[in-house]
Amino acid sequence: MKVLRTALALCVASSGLAVAQSASAQFFLQSRDFSGAAVTGEESDLGQALPGATSAEMRAALVWHMRAALNVAALQCQFEPTLLTVPNYNSILADHGDELKGAFDTLTKYFLRVNKAAGPRAGQSALDQFGTRTYSSFATVAAQYGFCQTAGSIGRDAVFAPRGHFFEVALARSRELRNSLIPWGEQRFPRYIGRERGAPMMIRLDPICWNKKGEWVVKKCGAQNWPPVGLGMATR
Is 210 in a helix, a strand, or coil? Predict the structure, then answer.
């Protein structure tokens, strides 16, 4: 009886470990490490350029970029509910609403200021364009798995960040978020066609390379690539 209890306990423990591993893996046995150094908000490759912006305005833009990315994730990553992108985003709006509003107000004043000569309508138009381009910069198909997984992790951190400190999450993880927009696949067993040096070559079957007698036409296709060097062929 004691042996049976021990066996059952081991089964439960191993199944729990398997569930934990699958939950953390999400899409791959080993995901790409997208982590990057913390940023200041003044990097030129994190978003759109804001000529003449102050440090406060640059930080507001970074906060708004992060908010936009998590919004895109809430819409784009619903195919994997365990990422919690929707409930986490809603919690972020509730917990960090004042900070997000402050960032938006700062950006609004920036665009009105730099477009003062053209009038308020031009400033509002520039702000709208900034918002559209910001959202579009996070739309991805090829890198969807990596982006969604990273955004899910960032959203969780943002939920647990103290109110008024959302900007710290943006500073710490904006580089990682941008890195996740580059497509990567399985990292535990990375493979791609032609990686192996010994990968067999395929004979060319293009009609232009063969005459009516079934003979290879060197003038049109060069030296025949079959059989590969070092590979013998049986003959009668």
Answer: strand
Residues 6+ apart with CB under 8 A from 226: 201, 203, 204
- Please give the Cα distance from 202 to 223 (Å, whole number): 14
Is residue 151 a contact partner of residue 69, using CB atoms and an 8 Å limit? yes
Question: How far apart, in whole angstroms, are the C-alpha atoms of residue 35 and residue 173?
Answer: 8
Is 90 exceeded by the pLDDT of residue 216? no
Amino acid sitting at position 97: G
- Please tell me the pTM assigned to this model: 0.70
Judged by average pLDDT, the poorest of 17-31, 163-177, 217-231 is 17-31
Distance CA 169, CA 174 (A): 8
Please say whether the beta carbons of 76 and 139 come within 8 A.
yes
Neighbours of 204 (CB within 10 A): 14
Angle (nearest 5°) at CA 227 between 221 and 229 = 105
Token pair of 187 as six digits? 């990292």
Q: Using the structure block, give the residue that is written with the tokens 């507001």.
A: 60
Helix (H, G, I), strand (E, B) or coil at 216: strand
Amino acid letter for position 99: E
Q: Which neighbouring-strand residues pair with 210?
A: 216
